[in-house]
Structures are given as C-alpha cells and as structure tokens.
Amino acid sequence: MTKQWKAGIYARLSRDDVNYYSESASITNQKAYMIEYLNEQSDIYLVDEYVDDGYTGTNFDRPGFSDMMFDINIGRINCVIVKDLSRLGRNTTRVGELKDEIFPSKGVRFIAINDNVDTKGGIDDNDVADFKLLFNEYYVKDISKKIRSSLKASAKQGLFVGSYAPYGYSKSPLDKHKLIVDKEAAEVVKHIFIEFSKGKSGREIAENLNKNNILSPMTYRCQKLGKEYKGSAWTSHSIYEILKNEVYFGNMVQHKRENVSYKLKQRRFVDKKEQIVVYGTHEAIIDENLRIATEQALISDQHRNRKRKSGERLPILFSGLLVCNDCGGKLAATIKHNKRCYRCAKYNNSGSSTCSSHFIREEQLLELINEDIAEIVRDYYKNKNLFFKNIMQNILRNNLRESNSAKNKMIKYKSRVKMIEKTMDDLYNDKINNVITKQMFSIMSEKYNKELDELLQMIDSCDKIIKKTSISESYVRSWINTLIEIRNCKSPTASDFASIIDKVYVKETGAAERISIRYKVGFIKNYAEANELKVA
C-alpha cells in the first residue's frame, strides 16, 4: 500500500506530569512508543517530530505545538499522532475543537494511540475518548487546587514560596524557603532608601543608578543565573516598588497576585486584606529609623503629586500618537506651568542614560500639526485628481514594498526556527548522554524557547502584513473629507486627530523639522513649487 499520510508525532510533558507519572511518560519514551506504532502502519510515514518539554496542557501557546500547526497549514504534514489525548492538551473544549473541527477541516488525520482514537474515516465518535478529555481537564484542575493550597499553607508559615528571591536577597542554599541577604544588591537597596529619605525623587535616583552603571534588578538576577538580558534600566517605577516593599523590613508579604483561572496564564492583583503577611521572617536590610524616614518621605511625595494633579485635569490631545524619533518609545504626557507638555517616556522614567527628553509643549505640537493639515488641504484643492492619484499610487507601492520585505523576513525567520529546532534536538541528546548537565540544558532550553516564541510572533506578524488588504479608495476619500472637517474646526478633539493620524514622530529640540507625521494613508510631503504632490 502506498504511504499517503505524512505524519508528525507530538510529545509533551509538563512539570506536573513529571511528579505524577512514571518514566513511561518521558518525552523519549513517548517518541519511542509512537515510532513503534508507525513502524506497524503501511499507509503512514514520519515527516517530523514536535516536542514541548515542560509546558502545561491547559495552555496551547507552546513552541512545538505552534510549529506543528504551522506545518499543517502549509501542507507539510496531514496526520498528527500522540500517545494519548492528554499529550495534545488538557483543555476539553480546545482538544475537542482540534479533534472534531480544526483537524477534519484541514484534511488532517488524528491518532491518539492509547485512547483508540483515529479519525481516518472522518470525525471520531469515540465516546470513551470524550470522557477521557473531561477526566484530563479535571486532573489539571485538581492538581492546580492542591498546589495553590500547599503554597498558601507554606506562605502562612512565613516560608518563601516565590520562584525568585526579591532584589537584595537570595534563597538560602540550605533551605530554598528561607531568604538571606545578598550583600552586593542590599547596598543598592540601602542607597535607594537613604537618597529618597533625603528628598530625591524616584526618577532622580533611577537616573543616578543608570549613570553609575548599576544593574537593574532584572539584569542583576539574569547575570547571577548566567543568562543574557538586554534593554533593562532602572525606572522611577522600579524605585517605588522597592520603597514600598515590606520584605526589606524583615517581613514576608505573599499571595499578592493569583491566576485568574487554572486554564490561563493571566494574573490579577489580590486585595491587601487577602494577602498573606508574616512578620520577622528574615534579616531586615532597612532599620527602623530609615523605615520611618522613608514612610514620611513617601507621604510628602504623594501629597506633592496630588497637589500637582488637582485642578489641572487638562485633556491629553495626542494620547497614544506621539513617538520618540530616536528610541522609538512613547512620549509621556506631563504638566509644566499648568500647561500640557510631552517628554520621552524612557527619559522620564530612567533619565538621560536611556534617551534625551524630546520635550515639546502641546500648543507647539498643535500649531505644527494644524499647519501641516492646512497645507495638505490647500494642495488637495489645487488639484484633487492628482492628489488622490498620488495617494493611491503610494499606498499600492508601500503595500508591495512591505509585502516583499515581510516575505524575505519570513524566509529568514523560518530558517532560524529550523536551526534552533536542530540545536535543541542536539542539546536534548547531549543531556540524555550526560554530555551537559540538566541545569545547563534548562538554561539553554529557556533561552532558545524564548527566541522561538519571538520568532513565531514575528512570523505571524509577517504573515498578517502579506495578507493585509490594501486601503480602499472609499477610505481615502473619507479620510480627505475628515481632514477638511478638522481643518475647519476651531477646537479639534483627541478622537479627531486619532481618526486621521497614525503616528507623530517627535525629534529633539534643534532639529530642522521638529515633527514628522504619518497619517492613516502614509507620510505626505508637499512639493508646491513643482505644482504636484509626492506621497512618501
């Protein structure tokens, strides 16, 4: 018989499975079991293997699963084989949807060997399999409940149950539930409290730390763990998080956040009344006198902020539209001399070590944008047909350019994905053969999984750009009419500007052109002396 089914075998193992199952559930044995099954089939041949080691079955945002679905969509495989239904997932609704709707709609045969599921003849009607799906989800729910109860019980005893110790502390090598002082980071914590108690703001302290090349908490932690982490700097937010954290006074406050559901990664903040507080659990970094001084400084700081904000409820006219032309970050709204202004958010939070201020007053912005709009409207009335023609040609040109660029990037990203998959397979074999330690394998896997997630997101973004529909002629005409209405309006609102503008790129003071406006139909430049327009 001709082998007509191009199979992908899928193996998954979560941390909970490791604790519950025997060695027979391991990735290696899952793969061996499925390959043995394949060898007995005359109409199926193996194309690829997909693995998610350490990923929960309730969440389908897994690199191996995503790769498998990608290969299904491009027709590389048309048969999916798992050891049992729980390996595909433990979410009844989602697994049922895959088994009964998505796979059949794509002409994919699905086989769950131990559950006697085979959709070769169409939709599977195995009632026992449906019951097992319900049991699999119940199992996860029960395990999740037991884990939460265990963590809460430990927290109530004053035991640390977090994954990582707070900045300034580390986990005791003798007992991971005990915190001990990390002397290097503790000195930075003391410096923050002392400077704030003397009257310095969170932003000033953050800027000073960045200037002195003091690693931020996240960067410091990654360095201690031997991991790479880029782009993190001290911010005013991270300073205030430290100043308000009870852990530095020797107290343990836990259960601050919890999962919305055992099925979701999404977390929510827990009300202070429900948080678990145990006093005197470990050595304090901040003494009582400095604590009192800091609390008084925080009260004064909050009072200043309330005073600054009260009576100054000025509307934010360009909310979400302003972008720093140098760092690409957003511009934050602020108030100076009772007037709305904007600054680069990175500079605002971390100081000049990350970017310059790009300070601009809203009245200046409004004047520059209104001038640009007025100029566009004047040119539109000079030659309506030419204006409209130039915009449409530019949109088509940009779409083609963006599509080609996205296709080239997608080829590069997919090539990198395959390279990482091969590297991870080699790493896995090295771990099995004791060439590298489990710890090193874990560190490297986490690094490559993170890169894979980023690559898959970029591939998805490229795919959307390639498939996106071009802006219609009717939309362009509607945009022009809205532009004219705003030009004739004495007091345009934030929603008016948001309806015609995509982004406003703000350059530093002294630039030849202070702003560059990307409208919903692209960048528009005027060449009046040539009596025609160029849309770029």
The main β sheet shows up as: 5 strands, mixed
Q: Taking all residues together, what is the mean pLDDT? A: 80
| Rg from Cα | 29 Å
Helix segment tally = 17
Enumerate the spans where pLDDT stays under 50 for 5 or more consecutive residues: 18-24, 307-312, 526-536
How is the largest sheet built, in terms of strand order?
A: 2-1-3-4-5
Number of strands: 19
What is the 3D shape? flat
What is the CA-CA span between the terminal residues? 59 Å
Structure explained in plain terms:
Helix 13 packs across helix 14 (384-432) and helix 14 packs antiparallel against helix 15 (438-467). The chain is 51% helix and 16% strand. The protein has helices spanning 15-20, 27-39, 63-73, 85-88, 92-105, 127-156, 183-197, 202-211, 217-225, 236-243, 288-309, 345-350, 362-382, 384-432, 438-467, 473-488, 494-500, and strands spanning 5-13, 44-53, 79-82, 109-112, 117-118, 169-171, 179-181, 252-254, 257-259, 267-269, 276-278, 322-324, 331-336, 339-344, 360-361, 501-506, 515-519, 522-527, 532-535.
